C-alpha cells in the first residue's frame, strides 16, 4: 500500500512539473503600443487682418502698438530659383525682428514667396523642380517656426499653360504644409479684368488654399465714376462679387486688399503716411503734395471697405505695413475701429 502511495506521489509530482514546464514555454503576447495619430489640420475661419512687411523697410519705422491691429504678418519676399531651390533671404536680421515682434503680440507669421513670372512658370512645369521647391519652402517655414506660407505668383495664366501647373503646385504645397499644421494663402488678381490672367486662377485651387489676399488696387481707369482712383470702393465690390458670387470662392477664404498708398495720374506712388505728414484731410481720398494730386483710400473709404469685408468676405489685407501712419490717423486703426476690434 505504501508502495502504491509512493508511486502515486511520484506521478503527481511529474504531472505538476510537466505543467510548469509547459507554462514556462508559453510566450506572453506582445503589448500593443497605442500610436497617437497626427492632429488633423483644421482651417482657421476667423476674420483676418493681414499686413505685408517688405524686406527693404526698417522695422523701427513701425510702432510696436501697430502689431496689435493685425492678425497675420507676411515677410516679403522669399524668392525661388528655376530649379526649385530658394534664393538667400534678403535682410534676415529684419526678418527675425519683425517675426519676433509679431509673435510677441499674438500675430500669426508667414513668409511670402514671390519672384519673376518666368521663374514660377518654369519651376512649376517641372515635377522635380516643383517637388524640390515645396520641400524647401516647407523646411523654411518649419525651421523658422512660421505659421504659414503666402504664394505671390503674379500671375498664373491660361495663355502660357501655367494655370494647370499652378493648381498642381498649390495642392501639393498645401498638403505638405497642412501635415505640419501650417496654413497656405495666396495673393491674387482683383478679377475685375477679363482675360487669361483672371482665368489663370482656376476654381480647382480653392479647396487647397486657406485664404486668398485679393489685391484690389492699382486699377487706374477701371472705375468710370472715379477714373483716377486706383482702388475705389466700387472696385472692391466688383472684385468680391466676381470671386465669391461668380466664381464660387467660399466667402470664408476671401480677404479684401486695401492699399496703404496713393497714386497720381502718372502712376507714381506715395505712402499714406506721407499724406498724414502733409496735413492732408485723411477723411478724403485725395491730396495734393508738391503740386501733384494723389488718390488713395482715406479713413472713411477704409471703414466702408472694412464693413464690406465683414458683411460679404472674411478679412482685410494691407499692402503694406510700413506705408501706414503710426498715429491716430492710421487707416489700419480706422479699419479696426469699424470692426470693433480691441487693439490695446
Automatic annotation (TrEMBL):
Catalyzed chemical reaction(s): Random endo-hydrolysis of N-acetyl-beta-D-glucosaminide (1->4)-beta-linkages in chitin and chitodextrins
EC number: 3.2.1.14
Keyword set includes Chaperone: no
Family to which the UniProt record says this protein belongs: Belongs to the glycosyl hydrolase 18 family.
Keyword Hydrolase attached: yes
Keywords, in A-Z order: Glycosidase, Hydrolase
Protein name: chitinase
Sample GO molecular function, one term: endochitinase activity
Record GO biological process: carbohydrate metabolic process; chitin catabolic process
GO cellular component term of the entry, any: extracellular region
Residue intervals of the GH18 domain: 47-342
Amino acid at each position: 500500500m505504501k508502495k502504491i502511495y509512493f508511486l502515486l506521489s511520484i506521478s503527481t509530482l511529474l504531472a505538476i512539473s510537466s505543467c510548469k514546464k509547459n507554462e514556462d514555454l508559453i510566450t506572453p503576447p506582445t503589448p500593443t503600443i497605442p500610436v497617437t495619430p497626427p492632429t488633423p489640420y483644421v482651417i482657421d475661419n476667423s476674420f483676418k487682418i493681414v499686413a505685408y512687411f517688405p524686406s527693404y523697410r526698417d522695422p523701427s519705422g513701425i510702432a510696436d502698438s501697430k502689431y496689435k491691429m493685425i492678425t497675420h504678418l507676411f515677410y516679403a519676399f522669399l524668392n525661388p530659383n528655376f530649379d526649385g531651390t530658394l534664393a538667400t533671404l534678403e535682410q534676415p536680421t529684419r526678418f527675425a525682428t519683425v517675426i519676433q515682434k509679431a509673435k510677441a503680440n499674438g500675430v500669426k507669421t508667414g513668409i511670402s514667396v514671390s519672384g519673376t513670372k518666368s521663374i514660377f512658370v518654369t519651376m512649376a512645369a517641372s515635377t522635380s523642380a516643383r517637388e524640390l521647391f515645396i520641400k524647401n519652402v516647407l523646411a523654411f517655414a518649419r525651421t523658422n517656426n512660421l505659421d504659414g506660407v503666402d504664394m505671390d505668383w503674379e500671375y498664373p495664366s491660361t495663355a502660357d499653360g501655367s494655370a494647370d501647373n499652378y493648381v498642381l503646385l498649390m495642392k501639393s504645397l498645401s498638403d505638405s504644409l497642412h501635415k505640419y499644421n501650417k496654413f497656405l494663402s495666396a495673393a491674387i488678381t482683383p478679377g475685375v479684368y477679363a482675360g487669361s490672367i483672371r482665368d489663370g486662377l482656376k476654381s480647382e485651387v480653392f479647396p487647397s488654399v486657406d485664404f486668398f489676399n485679393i489685391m484690389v488696387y492699382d486699377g487706374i481707369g477701371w472705375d468710370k465714376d472715379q477714373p483716377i482712383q486706383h482702388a475705389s470702393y466700387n472696385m472692391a465690390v466688383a472684385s468680391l462679387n466676381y470671386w465669391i458670387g461668380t466664381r464660387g470662392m467660399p466667402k470664408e477664404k476671401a480677404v479684401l486688399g486695401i492699399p496703404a498708398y496713393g497714386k497720381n495720374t502718372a502712376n507714381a506712388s506715395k505712402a499714406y503716411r506721407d499724406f498724414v505728414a502733409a496735413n492732408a484731410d485723411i477723411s478724403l481720398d485725395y491730396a495734393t503734395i508738391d503740386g501733384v494730386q494723389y488718390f488713395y483710400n482715406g479713413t472713411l473709404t477704409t471703414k466702408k471697405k472694412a464693413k464690406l469685408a465683414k458683411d460679404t468676405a472674411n478679412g482685410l489685407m494691407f499692402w503694406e505695413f510700413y506705408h501706414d501712419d503710426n498715429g491716430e490717423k492710421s487707416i489700419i486703426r480706422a479699419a479696426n475701429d469699424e470692426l470693433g476690434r480691441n487693439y490695446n
